[in-house]
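Entry:
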Amino acid sequence: MAKKKGLDPTFIKYGISQSDLSIIEDVCQVDDVDRDWLEQLILAPCQEYRNAGKNLNAEATCKIIKDALKQL
C-alpha cells in the first residue's frame, strides 16, 4: 500500500501522529470502541483543553476520559 503524502487531517486537527493514530485505531478495533466516540468525546476535549492554554496533565486527561465513559 502506498504511503499517503502530506499531513494527516487527524494530526492537523488533534496533533496526533499517524503512527499514534494507527495504535489508537487498533485498540479501538480490538476493544470494539467506536472511533467517532473516541474522537468526539476524548480527542476533541483534549484539544480544546490545550487550545485554552491549559496543561493537559494526567489529572485532566483522566477527567476527560471519565466524562466520556459516562456517555457510553
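Helices lie at 9-14, 18-30, 35-51, 58-70.
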